[in-house]
Amino acid sequence: MNIENQDPLIPDQIRTLLENWSLAVRNKDLDAIMAAYHPDVVAFDAIIELQFKGRDAYSKHWAHCLNLCPGEMLFEQRDLVVQGAGNVAFAHWLNHCGATDANGVIQGSWMRGSAGYLRTPDGWKIVHEHFSAPFDMASGKALFDLQP
Asked: How far apart, in whole angstroms, are the C-alpha atoms of residue 47 and residue 115?
């Protein structure tokens, strides 16, 4: 996909933001995680609620998610595609998310991720985020065993 007048610097800037954000998630550093988000972020996460509006609400959700993962965090992206021009950008990727359990076994799955970004005086910030897992229509169950 091509965006007319795409800024060739934007993909690397967004990749850097995602790398720092992912590192913060793996380190369970809530402040660093939330630094990536715009105050008015709208997020559709894969668990618990239909949507989260605002950084404060999403921060509480992130804290809950981090508490669900007592072991070492697994959080990585692949197949990242970034497009952007002017003050906006968007990206989509596959995200491997989970943690090691008490027995040292990794519990996690691949999901889909996408985000919209706004360039602010403080740099790029996530203004929209969406994580989801495909599901089987017949059973209504999420398909957590899918691999890229």
From this structure: 17
Amino acid letter for position 5: N
Please report, for the chain, the start and end positions of each structural domain, with discontinuous segments joined by +. 10-132
Structure tokens at 116: 């919209």
68-125 pLDDT, tens digit per residue, is 888 889 899 999 999 999 999 999 999 999 888 888 888 889 999 999 999 999 999 9
Question: With 0-12 CB in 10 A as exposed, 13-18 as middle and 19+ as buried, what is 122?
Answer: exposed
- One-letter amino acid at 140 equals G
Q: What is the CATH number of domain 10-132?
A: 3.10.450.50
Which residue type is seen at 53?
K
Distance between CA 143 and CA 147 in Å, rounded? 10
pTM of the prediction?
A: 0.90
